[in-house]
Amino acid sequence: RNLLDRDTFSKSDPICVLYTQAIGNKEWREFGRTEVIDNTLNPDFVRKFIMDYFFEERENLRFDFYDVDSKSPNLSKHDFLGQMFCTLGEIVGSQGSRLEKPIVGIPGKKCGTVIVTAEELGCCRDSVLMQFCANKLDKKDFFGKSDPFLVFHRSNEDGSFTICHKTEVVKNTLNPVWQAFKISVRALCNGDYDRTIKVEVYDWDRDGSHDFIGEFTTSYRELSRGQSQFNVYEVINPKKKGKKKKYINSGTVTLLSFLIETEVSFLDYIKGGTQINFTVAIDFTASNGNPSQPTSLHYMNPYQLNAYGMALKAVGEIIQDYDSDKMFPALGFGARLPPDGRVSHEFALNGNPQNPYCHGIDGVMEAYYRSLKSVQLYGPTNFAPVINHVARYASSVKDGSQYFVLLIITDGVISDMAQTKESIVNASKLPMSIIIVGVGPAEFDAMEELDGDVVRISSRGKFAERDIVQFVPFRDYIDRSGNHVLSMARLAKDVLAEIPEQFLSYMRVRGIKPSPAPPPYTPPIHVLQTQI
């Protein structure tokens, strides 16, 4: 909207060029160009860019605008109209996945605004629930009837077949009814509704040498007609057909039901307005070392971030795209507070217990550095108070409009293991996830136990309803070449990768559906005001 006018006799002829950056690399690469729209300062570009989206990665984007003056593909031959920088997460995390930002880049000029919308491609998300039965199948067993099961194959581009589903075996019958089963459309036919699906019928044998009864072919499009005369299939055994003149078939298979279910995705909730609230808790125990010494994990190096700062920035900069007010509570634990030296396990880093919110990740960093100067590192290392702090907020909004992520950064050995397990088991019923980043050289065995990937965490005989804790040691991510951008990107990727699934597991268990996305944007009609 309102692009600069660079043409003397007519309006500009704009094009938009999109650039992306590789992870840990500052170099911009051209990703694609829109079409050119002639003679307008308010173009609506039609060509879409299809990109891979990962919640756990920060994908930097740059949109450059040019006024096209000739047929040359070389951009330096055209007039630059300005540019806009953002991340893919920023677009997706904006209300209705629609971001409006000013165009910048030409000093002293208003360059207009750009509106970017994103939508998730949906064809890959459907799954189907199908049920089949069969009639009068060939008898294959000497003593009883057959024990039939079905095997489904999807066809590949090269004409080969890949197995994608096996039903259970129904014992001793020639008229089996199999249980309904669910399969993703991608697995069944790669999203191509007319691709051949081959179904084979076998008689199960204990020794694994299952007897072939026959086969038939169909397609997603045929199956989607549901139960009807079109979905009764003759089971044919080509060998028998070749040998016997009177051969009709080896029985029939009938589709009893066909139900399409669209799997809702993480982005459906984000688009519908669900906010992700990010809270950070930092370990101020004495085992970190004196902050004024270079050996300390809290050392305030004027030239580069310490491990706490890196972990906080790596995770925070990605999550902040999904939080519209960008206000983050920041807590500390394990320190003695001024003026009286009392030990606290949930103090506000900004010094304001009534309002522990900091503005943006930079605000959190600032409050962290300020706290280091004013509190005394002490102990012990208690996690339960900060987990319960976030749980109190999470338990007040269970309608799916908010989800809470707590990042705990710690140097190690935990003192209140029993209480922490109890807190996590209780929190697993709430809309929250916990990320623990271990910094420094300590043994982190206890943290692995909290992670619950191997053995689900339990407290006093009660098991956690879902796995909500993700632990990683920061030292596994330190880049040998000293490229901190790369180590931060890798760390964020690993700790955030499980969040969308944990988020969805909460919504599913609670039966919460995404809110409908707000209606698409329609530009306001400008009323022209004339100066008299």
Detail the topology: elements first, then pairings:
Blueprint: E1 14-21, E2 28-33, E3 60-67, E4 79-87, H1 88-93, E5 98-102, E6 113-117, E7 126-135, E8 148-155, E9 161-166, E10 181-184, H2 185-189, E11 196-203, E12 211-219, H3 220-223, E13 232-234, H4 238-243, E14 252-262, H5 266-271, E15 275-283, H6 307-319, E16 327-333, E17 335-337, E18 342-344, E19 347-348, E20 357-359, H7 360-374, E21 376-377, H8 384-394, E22 402-410, H9 417-427, E23 432-438, H10 445-451, E24 458-459, E25 462-463, E26 469-473, H11 484-496, H12 499-510
Helix pairs in contact: 6-11, 8-9
Question: What would the average pLDDT be, to the nearest integer?
Answer: 92
Query: Structural class of the helices, strands and pairings?
Result: alpha+beta
Quickly count the domains.
3
What is the molecular shape?
flat
End-to-end gap:
26 Å
CATH T-level fold name of the largest domain:
Rossmann fold
| Count of runs of 4 or more consecutive helical residues | 12
Strand content: 25-35%
CATH architecture of the largest domain: 3-Layer(aba) Sandwich
Textual characterization of the structure:
With 532 residues, the chain is α+β, with helices and mostly antiparallel strands. It folds into three domains: 14-117, Immunoglobulin-like; 126-262, C2 domain (Immunoglobulin-like); 275-510, 3-Layer(aba) Sandwich (Rossmann fold). The chain has helices at residues 88-93, 185-189, 220-223, 238-243, 266-271, 307-319, 360-374, 384-394, 417-427, 445-451, 484-496, 499-510; strands at residues 14-21, 28-33, 60-67, 79-87, 98-102, 113-117, 126-135, 148-155, 161-166, 181-184, 196-203, 211-219, 232-234, 252-262, 275-283, 327-333, 335-337, 342-344, 347-348, 357-359, 376-377, 402-410, 432-438, 458-459, 462-463, 469-473. The strands form seven sheets. Strands 15, 16, 19, 20, 22, 23 and 26 form a seven-stranded mixed sheet that branches. Strands 2-1-3-4 form a four-stranded antiparallel sheet. Strand 8 and strand 9 (161-166) form a beta hairpin. The chain is flat, with a radius of gyration of 30 Å. The mean pLDDT is 92.
